[in-house]
Task: inverse folding
């Protein structure tokens, strides 16, 4: 079975590639460059031609414009990436009826209630172009009645030069003993990418459809997460300070992104990782990453 993974060179895309064989899939990656298929997926003819050539059983869309500044400055191109691509895939899969579609959304929808966990029915708040276009992407993906849409917050290692992930940035600065600011007012239910990919495949195996939250069972501040990771890896935090996520940007953003994952836990029949489990997973992956 072929799995066409859009954004297969990114953090979560690589995790899906890593997990594919465990679930009987042959991964075929699609991206603008560095993938098995290199195209602009927002061009309908390009995307549909690629799908026809691969004949996938499953399409996983991890493509997204996530840089908040770029989203604000280029709303049209952001819409094409975050909204139009999932619409194109959903329409294709709904028409063919024999291709499963998994779309990765976001958690940037909730604000002002600290570490509260929000379920799939919680009211969303669309503060910026990123949130607006990702929410539109969710709605478009749901036009395929069999689609699986995941709200999540993933962390891990991507190993792209000059574009570190959050975890890569934290560890690089801790290694160099640079000063960093840890946000005490920005809360997420972050999950390591490989665990997120595994859970997604399990949901697909169990024929899950519709909207599901996938994350850790707790909502932790970025300060708390960094402290836990530094303690686990025995890094010194004497050069770290505490600040606000809203102090270094003029872009409006939500700050309470905790996800209630009980729906997915009940569906699969087991408890998802807690924050300390995610830290342990990142620490183990770091041992491999630092020697890469």
Result:
């Amino acid at each position: 079975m072929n799995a066409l993974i859009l954004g297969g060179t990114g953090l979560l895309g690589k995790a899906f590639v890593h997990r594919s064989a465990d679930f009987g899939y042959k991964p075929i990656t699609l991206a603008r460059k560095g993938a098995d298929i290199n195209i602009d997926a927002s061009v309908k003819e390009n995307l549909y031609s690629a799908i026809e050539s691969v004949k996938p059983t499953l399409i996983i869309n991890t493509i997204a414009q996530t840089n908040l500044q770029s989203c604000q400055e280029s709303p049209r191109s952001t819409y094409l990436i975050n909204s139009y691509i999932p619409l194109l895939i959903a329409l294709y899969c709904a028409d063919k009826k024999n291709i499963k579609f998994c779309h990765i959304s976001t958690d940037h929808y909730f604000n002002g209630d600290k570490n509260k966990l929000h379920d799939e029915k919680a009211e969303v708040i669309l503060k910026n172009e990123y949130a607006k276009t990702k929410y539109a992407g969710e709605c478009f993906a749901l036009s395929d009645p069999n689609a699986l849409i995941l709200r999540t917050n993933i962390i891990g290692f991507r190993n792209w030069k000059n574009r570190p992930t959050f975890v890569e940035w934290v560890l690089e600065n801790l290694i160099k003993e640079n000063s960093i600011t840890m946000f005490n007012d920005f809360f997420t239910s972050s999950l390591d990418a490989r665990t997120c990919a595994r859970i997604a495949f399990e949901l697909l195996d169990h024929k899950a459809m519709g909207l599901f939250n996938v994350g850790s069972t707790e909502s932790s501040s970025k300060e708390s997460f960094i402290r836990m990771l530094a303690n686990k890896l025995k890094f010194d935090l004497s050069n770290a300070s505490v600040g606000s996520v809203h102090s270094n940007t003029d872009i409006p953003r939500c700050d309470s992104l905790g996800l209630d994952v009980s729906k997915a836990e009940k569906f699969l029949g087991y408890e998802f990782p807690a924050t300390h489990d995610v830290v342990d997973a990142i620490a183990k992956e770091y041992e491999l990453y630092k020697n890469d």
About this structure: Residues 64 and 223 are 26 Å apart (CA to CA). The two ends are 30 Å apart (CA to CA). The mean pLDDT is 96. The chain has one domain: 2-289.
